[in-house]
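Re: that chain you flagged

S.,

Sorry for the slow reply, it's been a week of failed gels. I finally had a moment to sit down with the sequence you sent. For the record, here it is as I used it:
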Amino acid sequence: MKNEMRRDIRTFALTMTGLGSIIGSGWLFGSWKAASVAGPAAIYSWILGMIIILFIGLTFAELGAMFPASGGMVRYGQFSHGSLVGFISGWANWIAIVSVIPVEAVASTQYLSSWNFEWTHQLYNGSELTFPGLIIAAFLVIVYFLLNYFTVSLFARVNSTITIFKFIIPVMVIVGIMYTGFNTHNFIAPEHGGFMPNGWSGVLTAVATSGIVFAFNGFQSPINLAGEAKKPGRSIPIAVISSILIAGVIYVLLQITFLGGVTEGMLKSGWSHLNLSSPFADLAMALGLNWLVLLLFADAFVSPSGTGITYTATTARMIYGMERNGFFPPIFGQVNSKVGVPRAAMWFNLVVSYIFLFLFRGWGSLASVISVATLISYVTGPVCVMVFRQFGDNIKHPLQIKGMHIIAPIAFIAASLIYYWATWPLTGKVTFIIIIGLPLYFYYQVKDHFKGFAKDLKAGIWLIAYLLFMIMISWIGSSKFGGLNIIPFGYDFLVIAIFGFVFYLWGIKSGWLTEHLKQGNKAASEKLSSQH
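Prediction finished late last night. Pasting the structure tokens below so you have them in one place:
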């Protein structure tokens, strides 16, 4: 065993990793879920989601280039503020991402249940997978595992090939449905509430809960694989930005296609009661596009499986990163010397994936939870990048994105707003999921005799206060987002923006030159020097 990752992944492969992670089950189900929440105005939801994630992604692109470390998304908070912030952001991010692996397997199996065979109809009961369906999903998780187990280069080759296929099929869906059965009346039909049946609150809630943030989460994959990139300073920002923009265009076009392709029979009870088990396949069947139905059923395995394969790789790097932070046993930081893969971390994630698979058996049951959990880690990115900038020459900056002093606070406030839009009581429930990981944090603090704990606690109070504030504002906020309506719609956004900016400044002021940062900066400098 050894503890260094191989740097075998090039810019194109990293970009395909990001794009492949974004275009997973989200495109198969996201348009339907967003339409059921926001109606035709779901188009705005995707555009808004893409812009917000792009701002957030830009902060992490600079961080990824600065610290090309495997599992980077779970390490930046540790570098900037110490162990408490590092643990909370890392735990939230890992919980969100590791649960994607079984969700992708569930998505493939759910589409399989629409095949025209009697046995396939027994896989899904309309709300969750049956036992035979779980067996098939469990088998797919094993396939994802094995494709990552033997070598990094095999993962990169397989993922790039799958992503190209995943790009072609959505384009064919857009062309096929728009050409054959596109009904523009669906966008303005007064009998279904017009263009915006649920107002702006529906548009905003769709961003948080219908799989939009869930879909764009994949931009993290190139960052988590930064330690294996040949030229991280160049490759990571290209991979992050291009994957978000390309996928965003595809998702907006898919949403338009879905809205125009829905038949009158499907819409008889309105957008909010639109219930489809295999959304685009159901549209293709209704339009008589049998060739497209076959392609969609094939892609229902390829798209989610490609994402599942990618997330199996990146979550292993997250465990590797959290072990580096001191929150997991040393065995999870060991990398197989022959293949350059952290196999112990992969085995651990396999077990956790199966736990999630058997607890949550339907695609929709986890999509919103995953999105909100990830947002907790997203808010650390804009703070971290500005903390590192204030250290100046003490930190190497291979990439400095222009306008970051404007981009970072916008990203922080935007992430806070999405968190709020997820509606009460979901915001409280997700925060509780994060809190249940704290005993693990305190176990390692006790083991380390609370060394440096007081300083880490002081540096992390802003994040604790922020989470408590978000729970409170969600509870007393607008009734449109599940709150008590003490702070009405519109004013709630203003309160979040003002207080969000205060927490952003507090977070920057709380940052300090940690030992983890010094070590990470030294390792990054050596890695960047080795490229020249």
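What I noticed first: The chain has 23 helices and no strands.

Talk soon,
D.
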